[in-house]
Amino acid sequence: MRAGIKRLIDIATVFFGAVILSPLFLLVALMVRFSLGSPVLFCQVRPGLDGKPFTIYKFRTMKDLWDAEGKPLSDEERLTGVGRFLRATSLDELPGLWNVLKGEMSLVGPRPLLMEYLERYTPEQARRHEVKPGITGWAQVNGRNAIDWEEKFALDAGQRQSRLKYNGDKEFR
Fold first, then answer.
1. Cα separation of 58 and 68, whole Å?
2. SS3 string of the chain?
3. Is the CA virtual torsion 25, 28, 30, 33 positive or negative?
4. What is the pLDDT of residue 162?
5. What integer pLDDT is reported at residue 145 of this predicted model?
6. How large is the greatest C-alpha to C-alpha distance in the chain, in angstroms?
7. pLDDT tens, the chain, 173 aa long
8. Per-residue model confidence (pLDDT) at position 4
9. CA 65, CA 78: separation in Å to the nearest integer?
10. Residue 85 to residue 154: CA distance in whole angstroms
């Protein structure tokens, strides 16, 4: 029953949000197209509910640049100014609303990591796959990149409430 209500809220919010955010979608798509070229979207397979693979959609934030040996350059070297802005504002996540409509993600849930990490999870960390992944989650609300991986996993698995306090200096304690 609760899952059904959450799903209805997700769908209603995405439909309402899509109407309001459609000009922003277009603006971001044009920014990506003119700064990075095609494709505008970044697609990658990630683990969803019960670890089942699905394709996540995001706006592209990096250039395809390779070294002389054919290996991609570091993320920092490939990330563009537009990409930094999109990531800082989370606008790169907007296409993930399609994943929510498809039922692969929810608006709120643990952020889906890479498939290659599945085998590395402890049983407690793997609990994050007991629910649909989300566009945003408890770990993002409670520190995002300012907290370590252990804290993120604990928050994603619902092991405890955040102990973090914002001290006003862009630091969490």
1. 28
2. CHHHHHHHHHHHHHHHHHHHHHHHHHHHHHHHHHHHCCCCEEEEEEECHHHCEEEEEEECCECCCECCCCCECCHHHHECHHHHHHHHHCHHHCCHHHHHHHCCCEEECCCCCCHHHHHHCCCCHHHHHHCCCEEECHHHHCCHHHCCHHHHHHHHCCCCCCCCCECCCCCEC
3. negative
4. 41
5. 66
6. 55
7. 788 899 999 999 999 999 999 999 999 999 999 999 999 999 999 999 999 999 999 999 999 888 889 888 888 889 999 999 999 999 999 999 999 999 999 998 898 989 998 898 888 888 888 889 999 877 677 766 667 777 776 677 665 444 444 444 444 34
8. 87
9. 6
10. 28
Q: How far apart are CA 93 and CA 57, in angstroms?
A: 8
Of the candidates 76, 169, 81, 156, the one whose C-alpha atom is nearest the C-alpha of residue 112 is: 156
The reported pLDDT for the residue numbered 161 is: 45
Residue 10 contacts residue 107 (beta carbons within 8 Å): yes
Q: What six digits make up the tokens of 84?
A: 């930094």
Residues in the chain: 173
